[in-house]
Amino acid sequence: MESVPDLFIREAFARTEKPRRVLVYAPLAYSTPHFETDLEIAQRHLELGDQVELVLCDAELPFCQLNPNHELQRCVQCVSRNLQGASQLSAKVPTLGLLTSLQPEDLARLATIPREFADQQALGKYFFDGFDAGMATLSSLIDFTHTLPVDTKRFATIINRALYASIASFLAFKRILAAVHYDCVYIYNGRWSMMRSAVRACEQLDVHYYTHERGADFRKFAVYRDALPHDKLYIREQIGATWANAVGHPQTHALAEAFFREQRQRVEKNWFSFTKLQESGRVPMNWDRRARRLVCFTSSEFECAAISDNGVRKIYPNQAAGIRRIARLLSKLTPDTHIWVRVHPNDNSPDAVKRWKEASANLPNATFVLPDEKVDSYSMLEGAEKVLTFGSTIGVEATFWGKPTICADYSFYDGMDAQYEVADENELMELLCRSELPPKPVENALRYGYYLNTYGGKFLHFSTDQISDYEFKSPFRGLCLRPDYEDLRKRLLELFQSGGFERAAGISRLIRDFNPGDGMAHSILVLSLVRLNMLEAAVSALETAAEKLSPPQLEQVLRSTASALLDTLRLAKQVPVRGTPSPSRRAAAVLLRVPTFAALGQSLMAISNRAENASPLPQPVG
Predict the structure, then answer these.
(1) Does residue 98 sit in the same domain as residue 151?
(2) What is the number of other CB atoms lying within 10 angstroms of the CB of residue 442?
(3) Would residue 1 count as lying in a domain?
(4) Is the peptide bond preceding residue 350 cis, with omega within 30 degrees of 0?
(5) What CATH number has the domain bearing residue 152?
(6) Looking at residue 210, what DSSP letter applies?
(7) Whole-number pLDDT of residue 576
(8) In which region does residue 97 sit, left (phi positive, over 0), alpha (psi from -120 to 50) or beta (all else)?
């Protein structure tokens, strides 16, 4: 069944009278299919005649979502993909380094950021120049700890790295945006620390942006104009516009209903089914007890916990506290009601399970079904008198299946009359205790089902048959972007030969640090730094080569670098400092290590001696 074209994809890629200047912020090249989505967006704009630039990361950040410990092997894999991906576009596009625009004053400010926070609340309240850097960092941290609250003492080191990376990318991106006028910027997701930094930079400088994410299935991607994919109000507006646009289409209702049926059948479309491992028809052991059945389905809290002000909720501070309070009130107000709590299957970290077990203690009228239990969520839904959620999608599913559903928090489908919405605890308890509560009309759930079954546009240049393909078998414009060390080395050489000295220096430094015996990386690093007139750094890189390489390897490096380095040294005005060897003297010391270059080293040393004897020697600073 085909739906009408996505309104928002159509808007983003509409041809304009004048070509646009488009910036695609793509630092997470290891991430698939999201980096391929970055490339898809870039390619579509190239085909519209727009000017496109990419922001890539060449292992510059001390933390990223996919590599929190900055492991060099993962960085090498990521950079390999970013070079391949950029080369697969139909035209050569400028690529910008992520942090190369930082100025000395930015680095000085970065040195002052806090190294530790008292607790999660303190971290969440930390702002830097109006950027909610603490919340952005918290969002990233929660994603891989899957715990709330976050122990800021235990994770102090990684918090500091993540905070530094988010602020550094924020400052750098603001400088990029201030230097050139871009008509629009594309950013993946916008929730993680080094992605939200780009969102906030755009907002502060009033630059139009889109975030992008997975679409309704793995062959689609979705875009969100000047908003995050987690913005409930914005999504509700998208749902309304999508439904209005689809009215009259012959497949609209069928597509809407298909969403609910496929959810129940555990069909995996844009992400893995959390209910797939559950045993169909299985119910809790005490399911047959004589009681009015209230079934509560929890949400996975960590994903949206750091989207707004520390995850502020409508009534209760968190789901666990809310459920304990509700169970105790029910025991007094309606003793014949028993509440079964189906804990979200994704809430399965040891800390989360411990928290839920603690929440269930001493509640005789509540049964908690923990994340890894095989109990069938849909059998519980079928047998429920009422359904309670805190915003979970299964709440609107319950409406479709003819069950009255009550929401004790905010949801993506608020305002559609597809659930009972409450303002406070009194309203909530009145509905929970009411003996007769009719379900909301099934038709009111359809617009949400239609949206979730159709949103986004199909990839035109990326082809995949998997939700997640970290074997990298899914091609973009005919090439599977597989991390490849030898391919990376080849592309590094090409980048240097084409004049991309700044990126070549960064990538060769990464390869050198990852594989200290790679002589080509040492050579390109020295030569790139020479081309950038960074003489001190070039000599330091040569000294590092002398420390890391065998004599034959060092000889090969000198064969490729000595001439360019010596020409630069001869032309450079070197002011000697007492007690500090000059760059010429340091380079000469390396040359003297290799017999083939010994005579040249002696000559350079003599030149250095004459220069130092002819110049006054200032004292070293400090």
Answers:
(1) yes
(2) 16
(3) no
(4) no
(5) 3.40.50
(6) E
(7) 55
(8) beta
Taking the CA of residue 530 as centre, how many other CA atoms within 13 Å lie in the half-sphere pointing to its CB?
24
Is the distance from CB of 529 to CB of 520 less than 8 angstroms?
no
Q: In the prediction, which pLDDT does 145 show?
A: 78
For 248-258, the pLDDT digits (tens) are 899 999 999 99
- Point out which residues pair with 476 in neighbouring strands: 462, 479
Residues 6 or more apart in contact with residue 434 via CB below 8 angstroms: none
Q: Which two tokens stand for residue 204?
A: 């502060």
End-to-end CA distance of the chain: 74
State residue 208's pLDDT score.
Answer: 98
Query: Is residue 476 in some structural domain?
Result: no
Residues 444, 399: contact at Cβ < 8 Å?
yes
Residues 82 and 189 in one domain: yes
3-state secondary structure of 574: coil
Residue 466, domain member (yes or no): no
pLDDT tens for 432-474 read 999 999 999 999 999 999 999 999 999 999 999 999 999 999 9
Q: What is the pLDDT of residue 312?
A: 56
Give the tokens for residue 484. Answer: 């490849």
Q: Is residue 281 part of a domain?
A: yes
* Dihedral sign (CA 15, 16, 20, 23): negative
Residue with tokens 């930094």: 197
State residue 622's pLDDT score: 41
Write the pLDDT tens digit of every residue in 5-25.
Answer: 999 999 999 999 999 999 999
Regions in the chain scoring below 70 on pLDDT: 302-312, 572-579, 611-622
Distance from C-alpha of 171 to C-alpha of 182, rounded to nearest angstrom? 17
Question: The domain containing residue 83 runs over which residues?
Answer: 7-247
**Count of structural domains, the chain:** 3
**Same domain as 396, residue 322:** yes
